[in-house]
Structure prediction request, 250 residues.
Amino acid sequence: MSLLEIKKAHLKLDNKQILKGISLSVNAGEVHAIMGPNGSGKSTMSYMLAGRNGYELESGDVLLNGESLIGMAADERARSGLFLAFQYPVELPGVGGIAFLREAVNSRRKHLGEKELDHLAFVKEVRKVAGEMFVKDEMLKRSVNVGFSGGEKKRFEILQMAMLKPTVSILDETDSGLDVDALKTVSDGVNSQRSDSNAIIVITHYQRLLDYIVPDYVHILSDGIIIKSGGPELAREVEKNGYAGIINAS
Ligand SMILES: Nc1ncnc2c1ncn2[C@@H]1O[C@H](COP(=O)(O)OP(=O)(O)O)[C@@H](O)[C@H]1O
Ligand SMILES: [Mg+2]
Prediction:
């Protein structure tokens, strides 16, 4: 069954048409990659899915687990199992990493009708998962993302994902600003979260990330619409010929 279904999504920003009829169906167990040149609408699509203010659809629909997200606030979407790792993670001065993760995990558990974790059990679990993601203890004690390097911010995003166990994760340019070693760490983290019961959408500009996170499907977004879909070979075509060839042929 389809975990996420985008139906003819149209969206305007500042009276400018940005999304021009995006349709996409993502099933459980699948990893989809959205590729496209700068300015094609990738981040706008991810903000729209996450429910950011000002990114409401003009027409179309989005279903998570068969339920429409229209009119649902961002925090409610998160509790329902949607996770967005931002291209530019926000800094939260004064909010410690552990407290932040605990709040997010417990509100998700509450939504699922599961018992909230007590502090000690939670800290133990975070430390274990953080170790797997190469997130140091010292980082968990600091304010979220404040003074984190690019790589640390991305690792912290994947730690959030691993703790929340979302149904659908959207990773917007998780590879941007990462060197090869950090790219490998982050990709290993994402791959460890792949399962038959969730789905992951990776948004990227470059093919490089898809050598590490091998997608089942690749979609090319250009000027607010998906112009071509295929398998991993489509990403290699982009690497070889650039976007221009694909865009011109569409
Ligand atoms: N707040 C805004 N108002 C008007 N246009 C915007 C706004 N934010 C982004 N855009 C435009 O929307 C288009 C898509 O941007 P974006 O979604 O960030 O693309 P991508 O992530 O693919 O690089 C770009 O042309 C950008 O200039
Ligand atoms: Mg972007």
User: Anything to note?
Assistant: The pocket of adenosine-5'-diphosphate (ligand 1) is lined by residues 13-14, 16, 18, 36, 38-44 (CB under 6 Å). The chain has a mean pLDDT of 93. The CA atoms of residues 7 and 23 lie 5 Å apart.
